[in-house]
Sequence to fold (208 residues):
Amino acid sequence: MLRLRELRKSRKITQEKLAEKLGLARSTITMYETGGSEPDLETLKSIASFFDVSIDYLTGRSDRNIRGMQLNRTVVKIPVFGEIPAGIPIEMVDDSFIEDEEEIPADWLKGDNTYFCLKVRGQSMMPKFEDGDILILKQQDDCENGDYCAVSINHTECTFKKVLKKENGITLMPLNPDYEPLFFTNKEVIELPITILGIVKEVRRSVH
Fold:
């Protein structure tokens, strides 16, 4: 996993400033940090040179930087996104929507796995998921029937629901009976589209 955000935060540099230094668009930096796309070799070299680290360290293949400093990689921090407003799918969220960070075991990132967090807003998934819960989600574009997922609808809305797969389409099912399920035909899934952004790996709840 690319350590770009970790390095950028450690240097206290904004996405906009880093993009300017590297001759890239800010949206490109955002995509690199969230796993939406990966830099080519020349861009990797430029980023590694800017932060004075090796490409192996930058890409997560080594826990040693070019100075040979061993880092503690038993846990890593991933971003917690706050409320995602309508019109902004998760893959386009930048630092202005990052509310906090959560620690996860470094082992979870083996095999190029990527994780992100969302804060639950609303009561449609009660009682299993409460308003304010932090969801640790594994980023992937498919799921098993019955998985709890962050889902993008028409690239304009991000919602959290239980995904039920059927022969003629999928249902985004709330757990609270006061809320209506959302059904999409197979054609709508493709044409809108309906996209799985990630599945729930863990739920963290503050104790009051």
About this structure: The beta strands are 75-81, 98-105, 115-119, 134-139, 148-153, 157-166, 169-173, 182-185, 194-204. DSSP finds six helices and nine strands in the chain. The two ends are 34 Å apart (CA to CA). The helical segments are 4-10, 15-22, 26-34, 41-51, 55-58, 186-191.
